[in-house]
Fold these 2 entries.
Entry 1:
Amino acid sequence: GQSLEQPSEVTAVEGAIVQINCTYQTSGFYGLSWYQQHDGGAPTFLSYNALDGLEETGRFSSFLSRSDSYGYLLLQELQMKDSASYFCAVRGNQAGTALIFGKGTTLSVSS
Amino acid sequence: DTGVSQNPRHKITKRGQNVTFRCDPISEHNRLYWYRQTLGQGPEFLTYFQNEAQLEKSRLLSDRFSAERPKGSFSTLEIQRTEQGDSAMYLCASSRTLSSGNTIYFGEGSWLTVV
């Protein structure tokens, strides 16, 4: 099966930079994704890495190292609205199977 | 693109009753997924469809749970003989078959409380 590990909580202040790590185990690898979920809301897609390296989308970046089965989400210039849960996810054992999510990291941004 | 629609948004039921949730995916998406989420946890995969075919079911899915997608459009998730442990948010998501970046689009979820 698949498993993902990420920290349960992270706190930071406005304007800071925070990194949320994710390590995964899966017999086949078809990319690492990141989703954001605000309290009471639906998870929404943030970022995706299929190959090693950094992908940047505005204030958010995501990194992948396939040899280390590791990735991270980097959030810069934090804003209060970034307070949310962040989930890393991998596709199942075969391409085309469902996404499997980690337990999530709750980010609290304070002023 | 009207998004993934789920209803009812909230359901309170007595233990032992059956409940059914409906999901209407984004219209051009042929894949539809059901997940369950409890407080402080990530979405837990239940099952998914490609068109009307149910391609994968979680081994954790009790036989009290059944899902259908009869015409390859909307889907229903039925829970029979509900138990208090079934209390959770049930999320539906949809995607194209080969979605760019593993992107799936979630609905707002259906909250189930079993009393």
Entry 2:
Amino acid sequence: NAGVMQNPRHLVRRRGQEARLRCSPMKGHSHVYWYRQLPEEGLKFMVYLQKENIIDESGMPKERFSAEFPKEGPSILRIQQVVRGDSAAYFCASSPGDILPGNIQYFGAGTRLSVL
Amino acid sequence: KNEVEQSPQNLTAQEGEFITINCSYSVGISALHWLQQHPGGGIVSLFMLSSGKKKHGRLIATINIQEKHSSLHITASHPRDSAVYICGPGGAQKLVFGQGTRLTINP
């Protein structure tokens, strides 16, 4: 049973370009969470998705950021017109359900985005 | 005041020592995660608990819901335990994380 797969592991973009980060959850998991870790800062929640639904996006910046988790395929975190401040590690986690005892979240290796 | 406070922020110890990392939180929770982030950046979920105590190998996690406090203990610490340990209490739909405790175990 493969773990949470994120790709790419490293992504370099110039200011103004788009960044697409992909996350394939563990087999059997229908809940996906995206977190951002800015340099020298802690993990911050961004968005929580279930298949075809955004459940909680309270941590997403209001502009340029969007996320989806289609019926088929990976979850995508999309950042349009990237700026230097978007440089961070983006982690995806998946779980079989809501945050309840037993529904441990499994983390991917992260995508390290560098904006030049 | 932060919703999640971890202490200490940095901890250096000698191999073999008993380690305790504390986490106090103010958010209402369904469960609490303890995560380990390796020097290379990868994150591993160590525990998820909502009451009492859990043990896995040399790691023990406890939680007191009434006091809104959790602790992570490492017995017989080893240099390979050197990492950042992150506490993450969670409500129904999202986790809130502490800043992490950077643990260094010297041989």
